[in-house]
Write a structure and sequence with these properties.
The protein is an all-alpha fold and about 100 residues long. It contains three helices and no strands. Helix 1 packs parallel to helix 3. The protein is elongated.
Length: about 100
């Protein structure tokens, strides 16, 4: 080996950072909102307390997704797993609405 470090072109690195930033912002918001709604619906607590717990937990979820977006090896995995988690949370909300249709 000649000691040269092979790097991707500049546009590819910028596109990767942009994809991660968009994933951190959009998936972070989506997963935080879905986690807050899921916790508010499923926690066995009074409505006000469950909503407060869900809302406060959403800040931690958003921060965790943002860190995960930049720590992941590939950006497409963040999108794939994030959408998978979002669909699971949405299914839990839908199931809770079927069981008890209060809002």
């Amino acid at each position: 080996m000649s000691g040269r470090v092979l790097r991707a072109p500049l546009w590819r690195r910028r596109a990767d950072v942009a994809a991660r930033a968009v994933a951190a912002i959009s998936l972070g918001y989506l997963l935080a909102a879905l986690a807050a709604a899921t916790l508010a619906r499923w926690l066995p607590a009074p409505r006000l307390e469950a909503t407060m717990i869900g809302g406060l937990t959403s800040f931690a979820v958003f921060a965790a997704v943002a860190m995960w977006a930049f720590a992941a090896r590939q950006a497409w995995r963040v999108w794939a797993y994030g959408c998978l988690i979002a669909s699971g949370l949405a299914a839990l909300i839908w199931l809770s609405l079927l069981m008890e249709p209060r809002l």
